[in-house]
Amino acid sequence: MTPVRLILGSRSPRRRELLSLLVAPEQIEVRPPLNSDELSFDGLTTWLEIAQRLQLIARVKNDDVCQQLSQDTLINRDVSCLVLTADTTIVATDAMAHFHVLGQPPEDVTWPDIVRGWFRDLYAGRSHIAATALCLTEWPTGRRLERIVQSHVLFRDDVETLLDWYIATGEPRGKAGGYALQGLASVFVTRVEGSITNVVGLPLEALIELLAPSGLVTPSL
């Protein structure tokens, strides 16, 4: 069976926008996971543990969407689909080289102080990792490909001069690590080593390789 459409298991408009750069929009269907709960990174102390947990989160999302397809009586099972899920997180190290996994800032009134702490203690003048786990499954055969992509992001030393202004914009809310590279946070970034779209949430270079056998990637790209 040759996959003829791509199911994006994500609620992120940014991921859909990036995916549309590779795949014709009419071939993309968005079907987010029903369960929005995610596994925690609490207690993980090594990069290997963090990477394995990140990949597991993307895999659990993928299983959720595949289960939805299996229960949908309107889907033609003679035509296969590709189910794509992803999870992106920020991994920073402190002065003692301890790993810190930074998700989205809390939704309560403490979020500005949390973000300030991240910028001052973990980002300023230091490099951190933006990591995305990809999980691509052919449904209903179950054939699966997985990949973790890392990008290293270096912030300027003097984040303090623009930090209050940046927090006042509200942009850190809802963003992994409290910033958006494609937005106003670009004023803090001095270098990105690796995929830039990975920092945004979907590494297109790796995705082109994963999708190549399907024929879904548009010829112009």
Residues in helices, as a percent range:
25-40%
Q: Write the CATH architecture name.
A: Alpha-Beta Complex
Q: Give the tally of β-strands.
A: 7
Structural class: alpha/beta
pLDDT averaged over residues: 93
Radius of gyration, in angstroms, nearest whole number: 18 Å
What count of helical segments does DSSP give? 6
Could you give the distance between the termini?
24 Å
Which segments are poorly predicted (pLDDT under 50) over 5 or more consecutive residues? none
Report the sheet with the most strands, covering strand number, pairing sense and barrel closure: 7 strands, mixed
Question: CATH topology, what is it called?
Answer: Maf protein
The overall number of domains is: 1
Shape, principal axes of CA atoms: elongated
- Order of SSEs: EHEHEEHEEHEHH
Strand percentage, roughly?
A: 15-25%
Question: Can you tell me about this structure?
Answer:
The protein has 221 residues and is of the alpha/beta class. It has a single domain, classed as Maf protein (Alpha-Beta Complex), CATH 3.90.950. It has helices spanning 13-19, 47-71, 111-123, 160-169, 196-200, 204-211, and strands spanning 6-8, 28-30, 81-93, 99-102, 127-139, 144-155, 189-193. Strands 1, 2, 3, 4, 5, 6 and 7 form a seven-stranded mixed beta sheet that branches. Helix 1 (13-19) links the parallel strand 1 and strand 2 (28-30). Helix 3 packs antiparallel against helix 4 (160-169). The two termini are 24 Å apart. 33% of the residues are buried.
